[in-house]
Amino acid sequence: MRWLAAAAVFLLMALIGHLAVLNAIPSRIMATAQLKMAERGVETYQWTASPRMTPQTQTIVRPSPDLAYALCRFDVSDGPVLLTAPASDTYGSLSVFDQRTNNVFIARLDGEDDFRGLVIHAPGEKPDAPEGAETLAMPGSGLALIRRLAPDEPAHAAATALVEQSTCSLLRAAP
Q1: Residue 29, pLDDT score
Q2: Mind telling me which Pfam families this protein's record contains (predicted)?
Q3: The pairing of beta strand 167-170 with beta strand 81-84
Q4: What domains can you pick out in the chain, each with its CATH number?
Q5: pLDDT at 16 > cutoff 90
Q6: Lower CB count within 10 Å: N or C terminus of the chain?
Q7: What is the model's pLDDT at position 75?
Q8: By C-alpha distance, which of 122, 70, 116 is closest to 99?
Q9: Residue 53 backbone zone (phi > 0: left; psi -120 to 50: alpha; other: beta)
Q10: Confidence label for 174 from pLDDT (cuts 50, 70 and 90)
């Protein structure tokens, strides 16, 4: 009977350890990703376009060489964040990832959706969003990612030009 109690305690501890690890890993992954991006010069509250993906420029495993990428790091602890990105006539998407690596928002940027911006804010806040913009409550820091179809150098240059027309900034209150 003692071995049954010991087995039950062992299984309970294994389950608790397993759940603790599963809850800790996503936050650790995102914290490491944020740190690595900061070290590479990816600013907070600013879109940063990646160079065209080649075996020499890739920093993640198997990025698509047919896509142009732009990243923005943000933290809603500093206040609400406004994200905008213009539509184009080819595939494009904007994704937002929270501090636990969950994909919490996605919008099409190919003209099929009517994306007019996103205001990300801390839970419990009620920010003044620009007209037509969606709102999303999430705690802490996160990443926004724009992907656009760019199978060749001219398409990549066009996608990079669209990054310059995009916004990732703290939402300023109207004067």
Answers
A1: 73
A2: DUF1254
A3: antiparallel
A4: 48-170 (2.60.40.1610)
A5: no
A6: C
A7: 93
A8: 122
A9: beta
A10: very low
Question: Helices in the chain by DSSP H: which ranges?
Answer: 2-39, 153-163
Give the pair of three-digit tokens for residue 131: 């007209």
Compute, in degrees rounded to 10, the torsion defined by CA atoms 107, 111, 114, 117: 60
The token duo for 128 is 């003044």
Measuring CA to CA, which residue among 44, 47, 43, 73 is closest to residue 166? 47
| Six-digit token string for 28 | 């650790």
Check: CB of residue 107 under 8 Å from CB of residue 129.
Answer: no
Structure-token pair, residue 78: 């500093």
Highest mean pLDDT (candidates 5-9, 18-22, 129-133): 129-133
Q: In what order do the strands lie in the sheet with 167-170?
A: 134-137, 118-121, 81-84, 167-170
